[in-house]
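Lab manual, section 2.4: Encoding a predicted structure.

Procedure: take the sequence of the chain (84 residues), apply the prediction step described in section 2.3, and record the output as structure tokens. A sample record is shown.
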Amino acid sequence: VEAHPALRMRLVGAFDESERALAAAIATRTGTTVDVDVQPTLLAAVQGVVMRTALHRWWAGSFTAALPALVEEAWDSLAAGLPA
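Recorded output:
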């Protein structure tokens, strides 16, 4: 994917589409509005970054690590917050 710009653009488009769908679902569950409230879009974007980070690490490691473990590690890192 990284070596082929057309595939990379399709992947970016797929992530954008899934983030929009997730933001809409979050808005529905929380009684917020995607175009008005920051939380649905922000949470969906954070989820997208977590997934992209895990995928990049998975690709860089030649797919040897378990992808779900990499996703969980990224969420754990976010939950821990930034170092002082």
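Check your result against the sample. The first helix runs from residue 5 to 30.
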